[in-house]
Amino acid sequence: MSWMYLLIAGVFEMGWAIGLKYTQGFSQLVPSIVTLASMAASLVFLSLALRHLPIGIAYAVWTGIGIVGTAVAGIFLFHESTTPWQVLSLVLIIAGIAGLRLTSAA
After folding, report:
1. Does pTM surpass 0.85?
2. Coil, helix or strand for 104?
3. How far apart, in whole angstroms, are the C-alpha atoms of residue 101 and residue 27?
4. pLDDT value, residue 106
5. Mean pLDDT value across the chain
6. How far is it, in rounded angstroms, from Cα 103 to Cα 40?
7. How far apart are CA 94 and CA 86, in angstroms?
8. Cβ atoms of residues 59 and 96 within 8 Å
9. Distance CA 97, CA 106 (A)
10. Integer CA distances (angstroms), 33 to 15, 23, 29, 63, in order
11. Which segments cross the bilayer (predicted)?
């Protein structure tokens, strides 16, 4: 269950990172509330995952999910440009996340 909590935390991590773009410096009320709620939810689920997972592994996976998800969302939602090297780098992050999960005893 800890890995599921960590996955959920990572999705909320993506949510608040993307939400920051919509808050326009926290000047937009609804996006700001959603972003702050996503931040809180991300931390709650991360703390639940940390009950049984090592902090180093959990933090790396949590931020990795946020990094990759936010980068991909930026490409699709905001039409941000990307290069093959950037895509390769994201694939390497995904491989790292998978490797941490596959080699974790928890």
Report:
1. yes
2. coil
3. 39
4. 64
5. 95
6. 29
7. 13
8. no
9. 14
10. 12, 9, 6, 22
11. 29-50, 57-79, 85-103
8 Å CB contact between 11 and 45: no
- For residue 23, which amino acid is it? T
List pLDDT tens digits, range 7-53: 999 999 999 999 999 999 999 999 999 999 999 999 999 999 999 99
Nearest to 31 by CA among 16, 13, 9: 16
- Are 10 and 62 a contacting pair, CB within 8 Å? yes
Query: Do residues 10 and 61 make contact, with C-beta atoms less than 8 angstroms apart?
Result: yes
Query: Can you state the angle between helices 55-77 and 84-102, rounded to 10 degrees?
Result: 150
pLDDT of residue 104: 82
Residue 105 predicted with pLDDT over 80: no
Residue type, 65: I
The 3-class secondary structure across 59-84, one letter per residue, is HHHHHHHHHHHHHHHHHHHCCCCCCH
What are 46's two structure tokens? Answer: 């991360």
Two tokens, residue 38: 């996503």
